[in-house]
Amino acid sequence: MKRTHLGTGIFTLLLLVLITVSSMAVFASTNAKLENILSSNTAPEGVVFEIVDWEDEHLAEAIPWVNQQIISLRQKFPGLSIAVVSHGSEQFALMTDSKNAYPEIHKKVQGLITDHDIKLELCLGHARMRGFDQSDFPDYVDIEASGPSQISAYERLGYALVLVDLE
Q1: Cα(52)–Cα(105) distance, rounded to whole angstroms?
Q2: β-strand partners of 49
Q3: For residue 121, what are the β-bridge partners?
Q4: What is the pTM of this model?
Q5: C-alpha span between 123 and 30 (Å, rounded)
Q6: How many whole angstroms separate alpha carbon 163 and alpha carbon 139?
Q7: Given CA atoms 66, 68, 71, 76 in this order, what sign does their dihedral have?
Q8: Full strand arrangement of the beta sheet holding 82-86
Q9: Which of 73, 77, 94, 95 could form a disulfide bond with 43, CB atoms 3.0-4.6 angstroms apart?
Q10: What is residue 3's DSSP assignment?
Q11: Quick count: other Cβ atoms within 10 Å of Cβ 144?
Q12: pLDDT, tens only, 118-132
């Protein structure tokens, strides 16, 4: 079967529409999850924010967004236990050697940790796949064997999972 440029263009357009709608659904789901938590009279055991993206720079947008959500959550539920787990390529912006390339990201992450008394955990499994280990990251982040396993552990403890998807 011979493809025409028109057919390929329509296919590409439909694919882009599908991706856009899918991204909007995830973002809407994230917002709905937060709205459900904030509209509840009972706090969950805690909240874990999951950050996973394939761009190092993603943390530049994700961390301020998470910061704002933590403020809202703690206004409603003072003392709420909160964790942040990053297990995509964005975690490599937090390597010690990346501090000069991403000084604002390092500053924002340190502020998030100290201002809100939370843990920001990174995935050692992903780091090892790229040839890095725990010593390649600064002391202010926690390194866990597996980001997805850590998220599952939080969920078993009753933490509500919020996927950080800003697209």
Answers
A1: 15
A2: 84, 162
A3: 85, 142
A4: 0.81
A5: 22
A6: 25
A7: negative
A8: 142-144, 119-123, 82-86, 46-51, 159-164
A9: 77
A10: P
A11: 20
A12: 999 999 999 999 999
Instruction: Report yes or no: 109 and 63 within 8 Å, Cβ to Cβ.
Output: yes
Contact residues for 42 (Cβ-Cβ < 8 A; gap 6+): none
Q: Residue 127 CB: number of other CB atoms within 10 A? A: 20
What are 5-30's pLDDT values in tens digits? 555 555 444 434 344 443 333 334 45
Burial 67-94 (b: 16+ CB within 10 A, else e): bebbeebeeebeebbbbbbbbbbbbbbb
d(CA 45, CA 27): 23
Q: What is the DSSP letter of 137?
A: S
Say which residues have a Cβ less than 8 Å from residue 150's Cβ, sequence separation at least 6: 85, 121, 123, 144
The residues with which 119 forms a beta bridge, in sequence order, are 83
